Amino acid sequence: MGTPAIVGHQGWTPLQQACGQGKGESGKAAHLLLEAGAEFNACPGVGFAHTALQAACECPNPSVRVVNFLLDFEAHIQATSHSGEPTAVQAAVLAGNLEVLKVLIKRGAFQNNSPPGNTFSATAALQAVSAGPRERTVRNIERYIHTITLLLAHGADVNAPPAANTRYRALQRAAWQNQVEIYKKLLEAGADANGKQHPSTCKTAIQAGAKCGPMIDLLMAHGAKINAAPSIPGRTTLQHAAAMPGGNLSLMRKITGYGADVNQGPAPSWGRTALQEASHYGSYGVVVALAEEYNANINGPTAIGRGPLKALEACAFRGSISNLGHTSLHILEFLLEKGANITPNMLQFTAAKGKEDTVRVQLSYRAQIYIPPTPFEHEPIPWGNYRPLGRDMYNTARMNYQEGVTIVLRCWLHEPERPTVGSSQ
C-alpha cells in the first residue's frame, strides 16, 4: 500500500506534485518516490487535489512512462478526487493528451462501459472532451477530433444522458463552448440535435449555441427546434440571443428568420421574454426591432424567481445598478412611448436609488407619485437586494436620503415639503 502520504504544497503529496510536472527531472522524481513506497492512490488534499495518476494524465507535458509506472503499481485507474474532479481518462481527454488516453484504454479503462451515466465510461469521457480546447489552434482542434474518434470507436454513446460529473450531453457541451468543428463531428456520428438533459438544468443544443451564428445554421440544417421550451430556470434560443450585453441585431434577425417566436413565454423560474432580456441587457437596437418589426408584447408576462421584471422594469433596474445608464434611459423612453406600464414597485426602486433622470422620464408619462407599491407578500421577488416596503415614491426618496429625487418630486408637484409617512425601516 505504500508509506503514509505527506501533505505538501496546496494539500498535494510530493508524488502528486512530481507526476503533475510530467517529463524531465520531475518524472525521475516520481519514479524514485514510487520505488521508495510513496502512497500512489493518496488524495489527501481538499478542493482540487488529484490522485497521482490524475495529475500525470492532465499535465501539459505528460510522461507516458510515469503513467505506465503508476499503473504497474496498480494505481486506481477509475479513482476520483474528493471534490469530484475528472477521472484519469477525463483528465487526459480534457488536456488533449491522446497518447496517455491510448495507454489508459490499453490498460482497461473502459472495461465497465455501462450504465450510460457511468462516470468511468467512454461516454463520460466523450462528454468531457466535447468542450473542446481552450486554445483553438488547428493542431489542438485536430487532437480533440482524433480523441473523439477514438472514444467513439470504444463504445462512447453520442446521445447518452450526462454522467454524474459532466452535467451536459456531448452535443450541448460542444454547442455551449461554440466548438463548431467538434459539433460537426458529433452530428456526423449521429448526435440528436434536439436532445435534452434533466428538466431543471437542461439546454437543447441550439439553446446552448444560441450566441453563435454558424452553430445555429448548422443545427437548423440538422433539424433543431428553434422554439424548444426553456428549462425550468433557462431561456429559449431567442431569449439567449437577446441576453447579450449591448445586443447583436444580426443574430436576432437570423434566429427570427428561422421562425423563432418573439413572444414565447419565459421559463417558469427566473425567466424573461426576449424583449425583457434585451431591455435588461441594454440592447437598444434589439429592443426597437423586437417591438416595431416583430410586435413583441411590451407588457409581456413575467416568471416566478429572481428578477421577474417586465421590459420597462428590467430596463430601469439595470440602468440603476450598472454603467448602462444612458442606454437604459433611451430604452425606457422608447418603451414608455410604446405604451409600457409604469408599476409602483418600479417607482419606489428608482426613487430609492436616486435616479433623477429615470424619475423625470416616469413623471413625464404621468407616474403616480403617491401610490404605494404592492405589499411584499404579494410581490415575492426583490429587485436585487431591494425589497418593497410599502412606501410611495416620494416617501421612499425621503427615507433613503435621496435629496435630488425629493427636490425633483416637490418641484413637479409645486408644493412645499410634506411630512414623511409610511412604514418604518
TrEMBL record:
Record organism: Alternaria panax
Positions of ANK repeats: 10-45, 166-198
Pfam families for the chain: Ank_2 (PF12796)
Cross-referenced SMART domains: ANK
Keyword annotations of the record: ANK repeat, Repeat
Name under which the protein is recorded: Ankyrin
PROSITE patterns: ANK_REP_REGION, ANK_REPEAT
